[in-house]
Amino acid sequence: MKDRHSVQRLYRCLFAVLAMPDRLLDLKEREWDDLLTVARSARLFSRLAAVTQSHGFMHQVPARVAGHMTAALRLAAHRQQKMLWELQHLERALREIQMPILALKGMAYLIADLTVAKGRIFTDVDLLVPRAGLAEVEATLQAGGWRSEALNTYDEHYYRQWMHEIPPLQHPDRGIEVDIHHTLSPLTSRIKVDPTPLFEAAVSVKGYRVQVPAPADMVLHSAIHLFYGGEFEQGLRDLSDLDFLMREFATRDSGFWQALMTRAEALNLERPLFYALRYAYHLVGTPIPTGMLAKTRPFGPGRTALKAMDVLLGAALVSIAPGARTMGARSLLWVRSHWLRMPPGLLLRHLLRKLGGHRKQSAQ
């Protein structure tokens, strides 16, 4: 078992290679074993394979590694094709709906042909629609065969009254989860997002009825998802998403960083942006201008809370074989996410309800 500092060095090597793929050519046999171990642990192996292929290095890596990478790319391509096939069915079903519809996260990256999509595996289709049209969209999809899992009265109420999305839908012929959002964070969350500006700034994509968020909005949504969603099992992959997004957008547009700051202020999302910049810079090595780090620092938490976040995120994200320390950190961050998404009274009732349901299931 490698110690924490050795693991951190391995992850720094992984992200350095993702940013500068020519470093692959200098790796020794033992270093390849370590690199592949951390890439798989971080769920970034297929991304590493995509970077290797896109830079023409596949024939220069060890043959056994190239074989694994080729298989990973085939799997990623197959998964992405399934997602695109589902999107085609969704667009066909919603063709008569007269309202803006945005693809989010992995699907947005894929149809916008962003670098972050290369080799990225995702398992559901996320769409954003205006809340006023939510019932029409849901009814239309249900008429087309999509169904949600049967929920008890409490869980149904939880989704309908408090969450930022309706219960997930699936078509029985394909089994792909479809999440229909009407905003980017739970309605009870301390982070509240008015989706209207997102629709106004949306970008059209040739060949698709759905649109994608503007670059700054993609980054901010990714930050909300990572730092407020409470799910850190693939958190390092999500942090790598932020890294790839910011690198690409900054390369395309010299005014991106200022536009990102302006957008965060307009949407009251300065705190998620602070976390995104801080941890992308410190854990992944994203080349963020020093001025941006300084501008967002006043929007971060106090010194003690920030130190706690540094420790918890470091433990939750940077681990090869998750142990008690990693699982403890992820559990605390999960509790934090629920604390931020619900007022105390509602949170207590929710946790007691869930705990009671878990005990009932265990007793059966």
What keyword list fits this structure?
single chain; 364 residues; mainly alpha; 3-stranded mixed sheet; 16 helices; 7 strands; disordered C terminus
How would you characterize this protein structure?
This protein is mainly alpha-helical and 364 residues long. The chain has 16 helices and 7 strands. Strand 6 and strand 7 form a beta hairpin. Helix 9 crosses helix 11. The longest helix is centred in the first third of the chain and has 31 residues. The chain is globular, with a radius of gyration of 21 Å. The two termini are 38 Å apart. The C terminus is likely disordered.
Order of helices and strands: HHHHEHEHEHEEHEEHHHHHHHH
**Proportion of residues in extended strands:** 5-15%
SS elements, strand count: 7
Domains counted in the coordinates: how many?
Answer: 1
Q: What is the helix fraction of residues, given as a range?
A: 55-70%
Widest sheet, order of strands: 1-2-5
Radius of gyration: 21 Å
The biggest beta sheet is recorded as: 3 strands, mixed
Provide the residue-averaged pLDDT. 89
Low-pLDDT ranges: 358-364
The SS-based structural class is mainly alpha
Number of helices: 16
| N- and C-termini, Cα separation | 38 Å
Principal-axes geometry comes out as globular
